[in-house]
Amino acid sequence: MSNPVSICVIGSGYVGLVAAVCFAEMGHKVTCVDNDESRVKMLCAGGVPIFEAHLPELLNKHRGHGVDFTSDLRMAVEQSEAIFIAVGTPQGDTGAADLSYVEAVVSEIARAITGYKVIVEKSTVPVYTNEWIRRVLQRYGVDHELFDVVSNPEFLREGTAVIDFLHPDRIVVGAGSERPARLMERIYEPLTNGSYYAQAGALTGICNTESPAKLVLTSAQSAEIIKHASNAFLALKISFINAVANLAETVDADVEDIAEGIGLDSRIGSKFLQAGLGYGGSCFPKDVAAFHWVAQQQGLDFQLLQEVKKINDAQKDVFFNKVRSALWTLRGKKLAALGLAFKRDTDDIRDSPALDVIRRLIEAGASITAYDPAAMDRAKAVLPPSEKMKYAQGIYEAALDADAVLILTDWKEFAQLDLAQLNRAVRFPIVIDGRNLYKPNQMAEQGFTYVSIGRPATYNAQQGKPRKLVL
Ligand code: NAD
Ligand code: UDX
Q1: Considering the entire predicted model, what is its pTM?
Q2: Which of 14, 89, 164 to mutate to test the pocket of ligand 1 (most atoms within 8 A of CB)?
Q3: Which of 97, 298, 423, 431 has the least CB density, counted as fewest CB within 10 Å?
Q4: What is the pLDDT of residues 332-368, one digit of tens each?
Q5: Ligand 1 mean position to 203 CA, how many Å?
Q6: How confident is the model over 411-444, as pLDDT tens digits?
Q7: How far apart are alpha carbons 157 and 154 in whole angstroms?
Q8: What angle do CA 41, 45, 70 make, to 5 degrees?
Q9: Nearest CA to ligand 2 atom 27
Q10: To which H or E segment does residue 215 belong?
């Protein structure tokens, strides 16, 4: 690369680690800092702390050349032109984002600044955080000429994080002046001028040399709001289709057909119209709450966001009630849970709808045998150990003698089950699918009673359709 930038990324989590290796992949010199010593040790020793496609190969390629790991923030800041803050901003008690990790990092940066730096908010933060970072730096006595603060929100999704980073729909930079804006343009230049995509071995995705990534330059406040508004809008789409799914069920319509019919309207688009257990993960729930709080601080009641959350919370009740009505009583029932992660292709279980549902079923007296291809260790660390919570090494082991099989995460392998083998393994052939991975008729033909979201239930031929019971 002709014009590499020395970059410090603070935080080596799902965003920081991906950003660090991707900047190295783009040709920059990166130091990634974390205050979790064991994580830094693991990364230095060649370990990969999270399950994320392409991450192991990129770490292997750049570790020790383009990217180094350390817990020494001062050293990393001193030697870098741009400092990306990518620490957590979890939900606080009021719904507002807890910015204490960001503040702690800023105070450490303040002590380490000796020459001009561009400080970049990569974490998802409320509007005016940019201004607060500036104020805190000045409070700590840093000369205003020694830094600029810019907002550069991150839109990657877990599971496709590396490709999303290198092939973004857009790069948003909120900068108040020319100098930091130019540095940010230099950092993203390999993606915006397409030179990265021309390289041999470049990872492929939606961008290419003809159609490179687009950078949107705006004010810091607008950039901060773009991030919150994007996540809130995507969450809204999911809650909308879940509300439609619940209506569809009452009139024997099929939400999958409805989503297709809606999504073909190019003004609406087909993405994020998958009905299911409701959205989870470390972003949508907290960002919807944080955006609502932001509006409240400005004297506005953004009620629509409360409704989005309400529908999402209720969706887990909808699923729980489906399990209950399929099985009559839950005490003593043995259930196979396929999936623990909040969605496929990740080991992340933060705010996972699967765990919510499992906790409720255990409370109601059922016992669970769970299987997830990537998230079992993390789940074991948060679900209280109990006789009622077991883990299996595979799908059919989890299903052995089960009174019903629950599909809770949309892993590809759960969509490709050997249905004959599953039928032989279970005690009763009942599948309750929170992710709509199968066609109802196909499941009935394979001898299952199949209950899903927003579609008529189907029943195995021997049992036939039961009379509708009101519990
Ligand atoms: P994470 O919890 O996975 O990682 C945060 C890391 O920061 C941890 O490794 C932690 O040890 C480290 N850290 C905390 N305090 C530190 C300090 N003082 N010094 C050095 N390191 C410190 O979080 P994440 O999922 O990567 O999210 C980070 C931010 O990015 C959040 O604001 C989140 O909302 C946003 N975001 C996340 C995603 C996502 O898909 N996870 C996508 C876009 C934006
Ligand atoms: C999200 C945003 O998509 C991403 O742009 C942002 O940077 C971080 O937050 P992520 O949390 O990784 O990414 O996952 P995403 O794919 O958006 O899914 C979030 C949740 O919504 C999951 O629980 C998923 O199962 C659910 N979902 C998604 C649906 O229920 N239906 C859909 O149609 C899409």
Answers
A1: 0.97
A2: 14
A3: 298
A4: 999 999 999 999 999 999 999 999 999 999 999 999 9
A5: 24
A6: 999 999 999 999 999 999 999 999 999 999 999 9
A7: 9
A8: 40
A9: 279
A10: strand 215-218
